[in-house]
Amino acid sequence: MISIIRFAVNPKHNRVMSDRALANRMLILNTVAFTVCFAVWTMYGVLGAFLADKQIIPISKEQLGWLLGVPILTGSIMRLPVGLLTDRYGGKPVYIGVMLLATLGVASVSFATSYAHLVISGLLFGMSGAAFAVGIAYTSVFFPKEKQGTALGIFGVGNAGSALTTLLAPLALQRITQEGSQPEGWRTLPLIYAGCLFGMTILFALLTKNRVTEGANQKTIRTMLAPLKSVRVWRFGAYYFLVFGAFVALAQWLVPYYLNVYGMSLAMAGLMASIFSLPSGLIRALGGWLSDKFGARATMYWVLASCVVLFALVVAPRMDIMSPGEGVLADRAGTVTQVSQDRVQIDDKTYALQAAGGSTLAQTLSSKGSSLSEGTLILPRSQSWQEPVVEVGQKVKKRDLLARGVTHVYFQANVWIFTVIVFLAGIMMGIGKAAVYRHIPDYFPDEVGVVGGIVGVIGGLGGFVCPILFGYLLKSTGLWTSCWLFLAVLSVICLVWMHITILKMAKQAPATE
To answer: Going by C-beta distance under 8 Å and a sequence separation of 6 or more, which residues neighbour residue 138?
Structure first.
């Protein structure tokens, strides 16, 4: 009984329990708010495609690409100023301001009658993407350093908001447009998003508590921006360009990839692409835990090394090549006396030829095209044979060509193996996203918002820039797999840069991080 009374009146214990409950409540609210914001941020991925397909508002393919990118660009650029404001004034007022602006922007979409109106609205509701910088800084102030990796990883699960839009928005459009019979019903969808975001804003305002990093109010803007002079910040940004920017880009790029390379339907291509994007968002919490358990540096080593290997494995393109093979040359002059598929005779000298057999690989592929198109071959297949180029009675000299060689190489780039590799790459990128942000509280404990903001800007710009780079690479090389080569090279650059930096740090201070 005495122990119970002591437990009840122990103010230190009660304060610890209260702080823990508050931290958990803030983490939940931050994560849910970020999920809603991320769903809004990617709304044009579904709505823009619907409007362009139905030509309700005239939108060309080029305009659609920019329309999809406008919210991504705004949300990325605004992460730095939003991070600065969060460090100075705390996350609650900044988060509320971001969500209110995004609510106005997404609501205005429902009144759009022109492409320009859609773009302006996208610029405004793109602010929802800046919620990431607010949430990172706001979440970190409620948790001790040894728990921040796990907390920030859980917060990052909000990336799954894009998957919610991909899965639910098409169904909502189908319902509110009466299966397409009332296309103007699309205007209800932005209002639904606006209602959800406004409701989240009210809930956030009522249930959250503001907290500012100690001493942040005394800092000048110049002092707050000082960390940007550090090369380390830009190195973290390069990592995030890969694991987040490329992730956002691939989440969109994989749909046309499956359509063009594997000839899938749009519905199937979307499903296969979600195998990459959905787990990557959810796995981020594991990445935070791993970063706390084994260290952000060790986790990033595994992430970058895995990305190098996995991206390299899918560089080889789907191919069907007919190439010159080993031919047969006459070793002496003479007259051709016999020609068949398996031999050529010069006077009394017989030259054996490698015949194509019952059917060539091309004929085999043609006869089994329906099954092979679904991805039944794993390793490349090749077949070589020789075809006579001389006729009976023809005079030949020494070293003249009697039969030309033909080699047929076919590589299917098995769709299921490809999908498994891409799935694993998505998992590693999800872990990497948490590991990158786990570095920031260690190196910049008082500037988490600023540093997190600039790292987020660089990563977000990756989501805007990478699809453009992929398109130019495809146009210049004619190979869809050129995007994987670019990502493999980028992974190597990040890995080498990190390793060289760590070696330098070890020489300067072996006992420090």
So the answer is: 26, 30, 86, 90, 91, 92, 94, 95, 211
State the burial class of residue 81 (Cβ atoms within 10 Å of its Cβ: 0-12, 13-18, 19+): middle
Spatial contact of 112 and 59, defined as CB atoms under 8 Å apart = no
Q: SS3 helix, strand, coil % of the chain, rounded to 5?
A: 70, 10, 20
- pLDDT bucket at 390, cuts 50 / 70 / 90: confident
Q: 163 and 135 share a domain?
A: yes
Which sign, positive or negative, has the C-alpha torsion 260, 263, 266, 268?
negative
CB 408 within 8 A of CB 359: no
Nearest to 415 by CA among 243, 296, 271, 204: 271
Q: Cα-flanking dihedrals φ and ψ of residue 481, to 5°?
A: -75, 0
**Residue keyed to tokens 């990563």:** 459
User: At 393, which CATH number?
Assistant: 2.40.50.100
Interval 20-32: pLDDT, tens: 888 889 999 999 9
- pLDDT at residue 12 greater than cutoff 80: no
Q: Give the Cα separation of 266 and 256 in Å (integer).
A: 8
- Residue 340: Cβ within 10 Å count: 10
Domains held by the chain: number: 3
CATH number at residue 182: 1.20.1250.20
* Model confidence, pTM: 0.69
- Which residue, 180, 171, 166, is CA-closest to 255? 166
CA 222 from centroid of its chain's CA atoms: 34
What lies within 8 Å, CB to CB, of 233 at 6+ separation is: 227, 444, 451, 454, 455
Q: Residues 328, 329, 332, 335: is their CA dihedral positive or negative?
A: positive
| DSSP secondary structure letters along 406-470 | EEEEEE---HHHHHHHHHHHHHHHHHHHHHHHHHHHHH-TT-HHHHHHHHHHHHHHHHHHHHHHH
Spatial distance between the Cα atoms of 157 and 201, rounded to a whole number of angstroms: 19
Contacts of 27 (CB under 8 A, 6+ apart): 139, 142, 143, 151, 154, 155
Query: What are the helix (H) ranges across 263-376?
Result: 266-282, 284-294, 296-313, 361-367, 369-372
User: Is residue 226 situated within a structural domain?
Assistant: no
Least confident of 5-14, 78-87, 219-228: 5-14
